[in-house]
Amino acid sequence: MDYGQLPNRVIICIDMKAFFASVSSVIRGLDPLKTKLTVVGNIKRSGSIVLAATRLLKKEGTKTGSRLFYIPKRKDIHVVNPSMERYIKASNYISSLVLQYVAPEDFHAYSIDELFIDATASFHLFARTPEQLAHRILNEICRKTRLTDTAGIGPNLLLAKVSLDHEAKHSPTGIAYWQYKDIPFKLWSIHPMKDFWGISSATERRLNRLGIHTIKELALSSKEMLQKEFGIMGEGLHQHANEIDFSRISDVYIPSSRSF
After folding, report:
1. Which domain holds residue 199?
2. pTM of the full structure
3. Residue 41 shares a structural domain with residue 166
4. Which stretches does DSSP call E strand in the chain?
5. Active site residue 229
6. Is the pLDDT of residue 258 over 80?
């Protein structure tokens, strides 16, 4: 694979850690990193689903999707209802901070707690390296909101997202930078396959039946065979395993309408 022919941009994917639980902690004057707090659908219903939990509470076994009745009734554990208006307000404020570093067409809100920026044209205005820019942005967000974020950096959107999910979220610095040269050592080592972005358990089973059991085997497999089994999705699987992604944030940017 000649990666020299592929996009080599500075894409940063930022994820706000335990966002709902962290915002709910901050608005109560609590430190998200030192607080055991969970957000549930309805605190009055014992079977209510856990929507989010702070890091300390997760360490005790509380997971997103579990039930309220599994959470111990202790004074040091805060159980709260969601505050969607506050979450949206916090998300919008964080977006405004990040937009100081890139043009609107180089910004994409992937979800309420995750965003992408293409800093190719602007990172040199604020830092010497992409990692320094990511540190600067995360530090500003933390300083102004008391919320902790992580960032994955890559030459395209896909590699930035994968580096976020598989390294940055587990790194002491909260930042990971994957480049094309890292694909054989980092990307291809992701296991099981369903942990890779875009591969479900059902897709993994179908790949296994084709004799494909690793991301490396998927990357080196016949594209024609994959297309025969999966149709157009087969080409996408092959491209993702090789980190081929030509998509641009600016391609989906829709500017605000103006009246003249």
Report:
1. 187-241
2. 0.91
3. no
4. 11-16, 36-40, 50-53, 77-80, 107-111, 114-118, 149-154, 175-177
5. no
6. no
